[in-house]
Here is the input.
Amino acid sequence: MTDTTAIDGTVLRGREFEPVEGQVVIEDGRIAAIEEQPAHSDRIVVPAFVNAHTHIGDSIAKEAGEGLSLSELVAPPDGLKHRLLRAASRAEKVEAMRRSLSFMETAGTTACIEFREGGVGGVAAIEEAAAGAGVDPVVLGRETVEAMEASDGFGASGADDGDFAYERNATARAGKLFGIHAGEVHSGDINPALDLDPDFLVHMVHAEQLHLERVADSEIPVVVCPRSNLVTGVGVPPVADLVDRTTVALGTDNVFLNSPSMFREMAYTAKLTDVSARDVLRMATVNGAEVAGLNCGRIEEGRDADLLVLDGDSDNLAGARNVVRAVVRRAGVGDVQDVVLSGR
Here is the structure.
């Protein structure tokens, strides 16, 4: 027996987020149709978000480390986050991650790409935290090939911490996802990261013209985390230049530095950079889904029915003349009417 439901309102359809009045028809967790017809509600139906770069384990120490440099905060093995992670019990870390995943679901996120510290044990901990959750982490183990084998891939810290050729080759043989930090603090680690032919790069704050050309030629996607870069003082990524050259996705990075809210990340990115609201919404949805290899991120037939339903008549959104711009620059958790994660 087919399980069918429908959600009506203004639907942001397809990759261009064309606003159409109608309803999304869902059958057995997939989008079966987008039917244009007069809408009988003020709902705004948007693809659920894909947060393309997280460190959820840091949930144990939100807003710790005021005044510290990026190296003092996160550099392995003895940055503040690593010391705090070692000091916390497994139960504490699992519960903190569970609560962050719960918040992310409430805020309209269906999936995240998680760089998971702690080797095989760290992978097992986030899998425990995510059991039964609506948010489906794509977990990239760190530190060891064994962690990669136990997860969905490998998340490298950056070429300054090693060449990662062995880990890259092992990940490729396993047919899994390989991501690496690059250009967060300086430009010197970007070429070595590109030489590894990763599946995606993270940050690219200090990308120079040569690096932009290499990214364009290789079509390697980039995940940017502008709020994190602001907090750590490393600079502003060249988002518009990257968008012109490759697939760019959006991430919230370390939970102990920033709330894992894609609403906040979108608004900040849209107001900071010369990038259109549609481009920013793509960065928060379909582009992250494509980096992660997921079948969500846009509202079209055959996609997983992972949807965010906003109240277009909320005090915050009522009267919006440009729906896409309002979703990107103005909407927040308080405007969420429902989160439908049928695809999971």
Q: What stands out?
A: The first helix runs from residue 70 to 74.
